[in-house]
Amino acid sequence: MAASTSADFISLNSASSTQLSRRKVRRKRINKNKKKNWTKCTDIADVEGFLDDVRLQERAVGGLISEKSDDTLFFVDTGNEQKDLKLNKGKTKPLHIDLVLQSTSQVPPPKDILSHQIPNAKKLRRQALRQEKLEAQGIVPRNKRLLQARLLQKSLGKPSPIPSTGPRRKYYDIWSKNSPLNKDLIGKDSWYLQQTKKQRIKRPDWLQTKPSQLAAVEVISPGGSYNPTFESHQALLLKAHEVELKKLKEEEKLNRQLSVPVKEDIATEETTFQELCQGLLEDSEGEEEEKEKEKNHPVSEDTPEDRTVPVAVGEKKTEKQRKREKVLKEKKRKLQAEKEANCKKQELFRLRSIKAVVKQREEELAQRKKKRMEKRESDTTKPKRLGRLKYQELDPDVQLSTELSGCLRTLKPEGSILRDRFKSLQKRNLIEPRERAKFKRKYKLKYVEKRAFKEITL
């Protein structure tokens, strides 16, 4: 019988309880899309705690403490301590409920021996006795000696070695000649360094120059102040007015180019037919006129147009003809040489005018060089074309005369700091001008109402 009971029932020992606690309890799945489960399955412990705190304050103080005045919560103590002790003599006694809870037994509780036991007490006692004997002889143990040496080192102020990766390490220029990275390369042959690929790379010169000479933060015009003068504010308004006029002109030009033409300029069937027959009709009229001229003035057969001119066939030159040509060429060459010599002689008398021409040319070249240098200097402060888009200047932040206020507190904010910094990076050629990427959806959105949400009716 005992065997059957032990097999049929679970024993309530510690091992069985731990096994039951380790079993995985299946979590109940709840559909939170339904309205009836909204309040059932939501954690409202923080709300209940807040409401309990409010109720406690209402019971204790008669309302919320934050809404009470200081006079109702505090008072100024102006009494005498000795007098108060005499008056409150009976009130200092303990309450009856506390006296009931105190033990009235005269038997002391049993002493807990385990709480007073110390592990390895004999061993520790022997070590303490040995240490006292050594101290009496003047011998200091090793751990104390190490601690004293460490304290002495700190007191002397000997600097501790700074790690190479610590935040207190010294910084250096890796491109300088005195860089600690070049210690192993000093005194080595350049060919050896080149072949072993240990030669330091020379930093290019263009890395030393900035992409733009503009300041990172530009100072605005005086008209942008919160309390500007009349002249500076009007100058800023004029600048903003010119920007708006330029935009209007561009918009009108675009509308004019894309506008529908007037009825008179619209092409019709007749005008298109005339354009198609424009060259054909003129050719036919010209051919009729030529035919009439031929009928009125017939061309005779012996006219010089129909005569064939005999072409001279190249014959072999005689020796006499060759000699004559050679003499003529020599005479022509001599005449050309004499003419050039005479021109050079005449140019000696034109030295003053030649010098003036050379001087004028040099001045013109110097002026061109100066213009090129000025243009190059002005280009350093202008945005370059780094991408497919051009840089567009931001519209000036301006406020009308009615919007101005002489106080910073009531000043209406204008513009955006983030946009201003982004445009500054573009203007200083640090990034290329960009535009927001257009999101193009490949497929159309398909809206489907789920079955679980159909039960919610608001």
- Globally, the shape reads elongated
Structural class: mainly alpha
Task: Tell me the radius of gyration.
Answer: 55 Å
> What proportion of the residues form beta strands (DSSP E)?
under 5%
**What's the average pLDDT?**
81
Low-confidence parts:
1-18, 299-311
> What is the helix/strand order?
HHHHHHHHHHHHHHHH
The count of DSSP E runs of length 2 or more, i.e. the number of strands, is 0
Percent of residues in helical segments?
Answer: 40-55%
- H/I helix tally: 16
Distance between the termini: 65 Å
Largest sheet report: none
Explain briefly what this protein structure is.
This protein has 458 residues and is an all-alpha fold.
Written account of the structure:
The chain is mostly helical and 458 residues long. The chain is 47% helix and 0% strand. Mean pLDDT is 81; it is low at 1-18 and 299-311. The two termini are 65 Å apart. The longest helix is centred in the C-terminal third of the chain and has 30 residues, at 319-348. It has helices spanning 2-8, 14-22, 45-60, 70-73, 81-87, 96-101, 113-116, 121-137, 142-156, 190-195, 230-258, 269-276, 278-296, 319-348, 351-379, 417-427.
